Amino acid sequence: MRQVCSALGEATRWQILGRVAGAELSASALAESVPVSRQAIAKHLAALDAAGLVSSKRVGRELRYSARPDVLSEASRHLGEIADAWAQRTPDAS
């Protein structure tokens, strides 16, 4: 969970994740629509992949990336549990 939160702590990664949520895209295709260099895209994809948020598959000579909704659902569930615990807390009487 920590790696997921760390990976999502960067705005460009959110943008990349949003793009690959709807389609399998190569790093080159992502570089055309995200305003950072191709090398930066590769680094962001590596962080998202290490956190398990994206998967890749080889199609011809390129790797295509797609989002892993199962990992996002698990992270959402954990965050929901924290939110529920926070909502049910008893205010300090001091």
TrEMBL record:
Pfam families: HTH_20. Residues 1-94 form the HTH arsR-type domain. CDD domains: HTH_ARSR. NCBIfam families: HTH_metalloreg. This is HTH arsR-type domain-containing protein.
